[in-house]
Amino acid sequence: MTASRKPQIALTSKAAPFAIRAERASDVAMREALLDACFGETRHQRTCQRLRDGRAPAAGLALAAVREGKLVGTVRLWHVSAGGRPALVLGPLAVDPACRELGIGAALMHQALAAARARGHAAVILLGDAPYYARFGFTAEKTGELSLPGAFERDRLLGLEFTEGALDGAWGMVVPTGKPLPKARAVRAVKAPLAVPHAA
């Protein structure tokens, strides 16, 4: 007697799942190519890049979305002082343009914010589209007195508190406080080759 077999169901590439995991060293080339595709070769000149240059992302807060063996999304968070208040800055958030209908950006945001909260961080700031990031709890309510090291649009500087009052009275320049990269790696990062709204 032959055992009956369940029919094979072919998944269309649109239906293929994606996974979110910690970023790996082997992701660097694909991540850089994805960021170039999303932000262009001038992305290293963006204001928020000055908060990341020569610094390592916060521990456990560099995530990658992978689909069919390809990196299709990335998000990182970085240690900063937000006018004297310890915080994280989120960005860049990028999703492969061919995969923007799959919810990858939202999934990366939810996982990154949950991980930041679980690690005891008090607040996150970012530079991005307020209508998009409002769904995750970001507002401009407590960022009005903060500045960035370069040009930026005031209504795009947003904050989210995990600890109530973490950004109360925050005033002044947002400056990087993360662990410096070893010099050789920092030089390589600067010389690297140059829908969802993205956090810069």
Distance between the termini: 62 Å
What percentage of amino acids are in beta strands? 15-25%
CATH superfamily: Gcn5-related N-acetyltransferase (GNAT)
Poorly predicted regions: 1-13, 187-196
Number of helices: 4
CATH topology: Aminopeptidase
Number of domains: 1
CATH class: Alpha Beta
**What does the largest sheet look like?**
9 strands, mixed
Average pLDDT, rounded to a whole number, is 87
Class by alpha and beta content: alpha+beta
How many strands appear in the DSSP assignment? 9
Tell me the CATH architecture: 3-Layer(aba) Sandwich
Q: What does the overall shape look like? A: globular
What is Rg? Answer: 18 Å
Q: Tell me the helix content.
A: 10-25%
SSE string: EHEEEEHEHEEEH
Can you put this structure into words, describing what you see?
With 200 residues, the protein is an alpha+beta fold. It has one domain: Aminopeptidase (3-Layer(aba) Sandwich), CATH 3.40.630. Helix content is 20%, strand content 24%. It is built from four helices and nine strands, in the order βαββββαβαβββα. It has helices at 28-39, 104-118, 130-133, 183-190, and strands at 19-22, 62-67, 70-82, 85-90, 94-95, 123-127, 146-147, 157-161, 172-176. Strands 1, 2, 3, 4, 5, 6, 7, 8 and 9 form a nine-stranded mixed sheet that branches. The longest helix is centred in the middle third of the chain and has 15 residues, at 104-118. The N and C termini lie far apart (62 Å). The model is unreliable at 1-13 and 187-196 (pLDDT under 50).
